[in-house]
Amino acid sequence: MAYINLLPWREEAEKARQRDFFIILGGLATFSLLIIVVIGQYYQARIDGQSVRNQYLSNEIAKVDVRIAEIKTLKSKKKSLQERINVIEQLQRSRNVATQVLDEIAKIVPAGVYLVKLDKKGDNIQILGKSESNNHLANMIRGVERSSLFDNAILESIETNDARSKLLSDFKMKIHIKSQINKQDNKSAKGGK
Fold it and tell me: Cα–Cα 20 to 30 A to 39, which of 8, 56, 150, 169?
């Protein structure tokens, strides 16, 4: 006789397929979760690495900012020192100017002209004096024009006072000191070192 299986094999096969399906589904879910975790850790590692690089760059930028601040203070100190050096050089150039001015004035003042007052303001000299004649003043102006130290002699006024001696007239003259004397003085100072 033939063997007949009367057990509910179809239900058991269906349950086995369902169990296999859920095992496969659980395995896929576990595998997907594992892939998601691995991808998340990979991107988190990249984010952490970028954060470390950003922190390093921030630290380096802070160091450079400190150096820039130091450079700015050094530049301001350099500017201050340069201004001091310029003042010292200007004093060095002009230290002999007074002697040269007096020496040159002695050369250009002709006989018959008497100086009462000299007043130096910047590169200009205001001269107050007395003259026996206008010709003597004209000779003095010519002397200024020939001078290597002076130029622009301007005779501002000539006054004759009848109450006082008619021989002398008061005059006021302005003379400009050439700037070349400062350059020549500087060259001679450098050449003497």
Answer: 56
Query: In b/e form, how buried is each residue of 30-65, taking b as 16+ CB within 10 angstroms?
Result: eeeeeeeeeeeeeeeeeeeeeeeeeeeeeeeeeeee
Greatest CA span in the chain, whole angstroms?
Answer: 178
Taking 80 as the threshold, does the pLDDT of residue 192 lie above it? no
User: What is the rounded radius of gyration, in angstroms, for the C-alpha atoms of the chain?
Assistant: 51
Residue at 175: amino acid letter: I
Strands 169-177 and 113-121 come out as unpaired
Mean per-residue pLDDT, 74-96: 89
Asked if the model's pLDDT at residue 193 lies above 50, the reply is no
What pLDDT score does 182 carry?
Answer: 45
Encoded tokens for 36: 């998601």
Write out the H or E segment, with its range, that includes residue 46: helix 9-94
Q: How far is residue 76's CA from residue 58's CA, in Å, rounded to a whole number?
A: 27
In order, the DSSP letters of 125-165 are EEEEEEES-HHHHHHHHHHHHH-SSEEEEEEEEEE--SSS-
Tell me the whole-structure pTM to 2 decimals: 0.47
**Residues 142, 134: Cα–Cα separation, whole Å:** 12
